[in-house]
Every structure is written in structure tokens, then in C-alpha cells.
């Protein structure tokens, strides 16, 4: 498992934007596909919401990545 801390400068970032921001998805459409596949977990819960608001301390797990959002 590769663990990384990802800093954001805003109050929140939406899940689909986050996947593009960290380079997991190439486009918004690619983000949508990844999320629809059910392989994204936010705080240990499977997430299918593209617009899910991620805030500091949230943890996103996808494949071999554990990405913690920090403010």
C-alpha cells in the first residue's frame, strides 16, 4: 500500500476532481468511470458519488493507494 498525504488549499474538493488532481484519472469522464466501477473507498466506505465532498482528514483508498487529505 502506497500512503501519501495530499494537501488542498480549499475547504473541500469533490471526489472526481480529486482523482484528476492526484493523477489517477486523466479526464472527468475517466474519473466517472473509475468511481462507477466501485473501486474507490472514502473513509473505508465504498463510494459511488462523483460529487462527494472530501475534506482534510478524509482518506481515499483506490487500488494500492491510500491518500489522506490534509489542509
UniProtKB/TrEMBL annotation:
It comes from the Bacteria. Keywords: RNA-binding. It comes from Massiliimalia timonensis. Signal peptide: none annotated. This is RNA-binding S4 domain-containing protein. PROSITE patterns: S4. GO terms for molecular function: RNA binding.
Amino acid at each position: 500500500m502506497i500512503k501519501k498525504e495530499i494537501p488542498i488549499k480549499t475547504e473541500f474538493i469533490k471526489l472526481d476532481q480529486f482523482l484528476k488532481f492526484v493523477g489517477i484519472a486523466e479526464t472527468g469522464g475517466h474519473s466517472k468511470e473509475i468511481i462507477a466501477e466501485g473501486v474507490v473507498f472514502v473513509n473505508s466506505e465504498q463510494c459511488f458519488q462523483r460529487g462527494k465532498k472530501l475534506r482534510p482528514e478524509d482518506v481515499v483508498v483506490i487500488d494500492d493507494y491510500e491518500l489522506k487529505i490534509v489542509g
